[in-house]
Each structure stands twice: as C-alpha cells, then as structure tokens.
Amino acid sequence: MTNKPPTLKEALRSAIWAQALTPEQMARVEADTYETFVPKGGFVCRKGEVVDNWVGIIAGMVKMNNFSPSGKSVTFTGVPPGGWFGEGSLLKNEPRKYDAMALRDSRIARMPADTFNWLLETSLPFTRFLLMQLNERLGQFIGMVENDRLLDIDTRVARCLAGLFNSLLYPGIEKLVQISQEEIGLLSGASRQRANQALQVLEKQGLLRLDYGGIRILDLEGLRRFEAPEA
C-alpha cells in the first residue's frame, strides 16, 4: 500500500520551519497559504516573473532549470515532497532567475510573500531556518558544479540520488524514491538510456535496487562515496 498524500494543512504542519511557530503564526500560515496543481511538464514558476510566493512541494517532484537561447537545458536540482524553494528571490526582491517544471503531476503549496516576510520579522526560528537552508543550497550547488565538470555519468547519477537525501532541504524523502529513470537522467544531465546503465552499475554494487515504481536506496553513504573506476 502507498501512503496517502498529505493535505495542505498536514504538509504545512509537518514542515521543519513550522515546528517552532507560535499558534498565532501557524494560524496565519494556514489561512494564507494555498495549493495549486501543476501537471507533468507544466511550469510551477517561470524565469523573469515577479516572485510573489514561497513554494513548497506537497506531492510530485519539481526540477529547477534554465534554457539557453539555443534551447539547451541545464538542470540545477530536483525538489521532492517536503522541499521548499524560492526564498533567495524573495529575500532579494528580484525577478526569478530560473524555471521550475513539474517532472510529474504535482501539488504545490504557495505562501504569499507578505506572509513569508511577516514570519521573517516575527519568528527568530524561521529566520534561522532560512539561513541554514540557504547555506545547504549553496553547498548543494557548489557540489553540482563540481560533479558536472569532474565526474563521469555513473558517479553523477550516484551523487544525484544521494543529493535528494538532505534532511533540511528535503525532509519528506523516503528510502524508496518514486522517481523514473527518465527523471534521473534529467536531473543528472544524462539520457534515459545512459542513466539506466548507471543505475544498473549502482545496483550491482549493492547501493540500490530498482523496484517497481521507484528506486530503493540500500546504502546511502555508499552512494555518497561512490566513484566509478577510471577506464
């Protein structure tokens, strides 16, 4: 049996940043935050638009990416259920610097900018959470640049999967990751076929198992340390 997807209220109350809010603060968050549905391939948000809400994933998966004028795509990261993003653009009050697209049908929570800024002014724990999240995101992107420039595809796929297990950024992720080989390819910059080959290599190493409906992680630390042997 699969777990029943959370309601918007349940998703908000289970968020790490919500744990230290006062009843008054939580009541305003629940009253102001709303849910939207984005189908697979649809835009959760677009580059260049005015940023007027903080975005959380209730169900589904979203990738943050950009396109060059020639149409070439670069993917920054994938955001699974429980993850929130967009705080940087809100804090800087600038247009969004990237697109966010649904890798599958997704339920999206949107906290209005006024509510986000009110929490920033009234909740020290919320402000501390944002500092930690921004620091984690910076480390993630530094690692992504290193992976993209220095690592082979097998190792990139391993690090891509391991990167989904960040207790601060993505607290809702489970050991059975409901992600397709196509989605892994999009997140790691590989074709579906090449991503499939990499997953088979990692499965033979005992690091994961390809299950129906997803990928079961057997050795998370092994994925983080994995390096393909040099040819």
TrEMBL record:
GO terms for cellular component: cytosol. Residues 17-137 form the Cyclic nucleotide-binding domain. It holds the Pfam family HTH_Crp_2. One of its GO terms (molecular function) is DNA binding. Keywords: DNA-binding, Transcription, Transcription regulation. Coiled coil: none annotated. The keyword Metal-binding does not apply. The keyword Magnesium does not apply. InterPro entries: cNMP-bd_dom, cNMP-bd_dom_sf, Env_Response_Regulators, HTH_CRP, RmlC-like_jellyroll, WH-like_DNA-bd_sf, WH_DNA-bd_sf. PANTHER family: CRP FAMILY TRANSCRIPTIONAL REGULATORY PROTEIN, DNA-BINDING TRANSCRIPTIONAL DUAL REGULATOR CRP. This is Cyclic nucleotide-binding domain-containing protein. It comes from Pseudoduganella aquatica.
